[in-house]
Amino acid sequence: MGLCLVLNAGSSSIKFQVLEPGADGTLRRLWRGTIEGLGTAPRFSARDEAGDAAPGRAWDRAGLDHEHATLFLLDWIAGHLAGRSLQAVGHRVVHGGSDFVEAVRVDDRVMARLEALVPLAPLHQPHNLAPIRHIRAHAPELPQIVAFDTAFHHGQPEVARAFALPARITEAGVRRYGFHGLSYAYVAGRLAEVAPEIAQGRVVVAHLGSGASLCALRAGRSVASTMGFSALDGLPMGTRSGSLDPAVIFHLIRAFGMTPDEAERMLYNESGLLGVSGLSNDMRRLREAAPAHDGARRAIDLFVYRILREVGSLTAALGGLDGLVFTAGIGENDAATRAAVIEGLGWAGFRLDPDAKAAGGPRLTRSGGPSAWVIATDEECVIARETMRLAG
Ligand code: ADP
Questions:
Q1: Which of 45, 147, 183, 275 has its CA 20 to 30 A from that of 192?
Q2: What is the pLDDT of residues 60-80, one digit of tens each?
């Protein structure tokens, strides 16, 4: 069986993994790496299965555009396959609109429909699509599959998806889509293995990374999420504000004289943990600084408070809560955030198990009440599985 390349392309970086599917459905990760600093100071790095670094490479600012970065990666990977070949490429695409309810193989028609979704995610979608176009031009025989951050949420009830806007605006696609779906799909699958009795019930998954959202699962299916029309909604994140009163945006434009682009940049890039703390978007930095830094403490407190408020909201949507799962960078690693959230949910019957941390999880609570878990996410695994399924 050939190998699978997974690409996750953003505005300034392209992350990749090369995976070998086993006959038993397992995936072996042969290489993982990234080109970062596109548009500023591009640099390439990669690690093999054992975690050993391959020789890196750097370019000057103009030395490597997105197209050449994709081609460099294809070339580099071709030179590191030890005689094997790529069978297919899977891409992470942020927006599948209302049409794409699962991963799909790319052809001309699919490509046109993906381009038509750019206005729904103008900051992300174009970067996701660029490498697909470049690979189609340079290696047209290589099957390409796209997996969406939105697709996992397509079965949410209509009432969870609609804004209270005039019907014609809703019909034009202005409604809640939900994101981080690849992560939620993976976590829901793992939860069914780790805690099958909980997985069949009412669960909130907290994906707390540099982007952060919560998803309410009933029997493993998404019924509501904190991210809505865009990935700006819901919880505060590393640099994103999360939800705010929409009138704040009018006020920024009228009273602060911001253009819509400036307001957008502030809400996406200068807010969240970074904006509140005035220090960093990185939870590790904030934790180190918090004992002596008011801003860092305020940022962490606000992050936890908003998680608690939103868990309450999703619990109401679910009609109760049987389990809570933490995942992604902060969710998997920051025991203090997990403990604050679990303690804040004492009203719902959660009881932190002080020994659970030492045991390394995955269960974090005492037996008896609803339970909290930590499960490491793996979005690339979901993309690779879908890619191998659709590439035949
Ligand atoms: P993304 O994949 O969206 O870039 P991640 O899931 O890697 O984001 O999460 C990044 C966040 O996780 C950062 O805020 C980072 O500080 C936090 N993080 C990573 N490791 C730790 C750790 N050991 N303790 C606390 N926070 C951590």
A1: 147
A2: 877 899 999 999 999 999 999
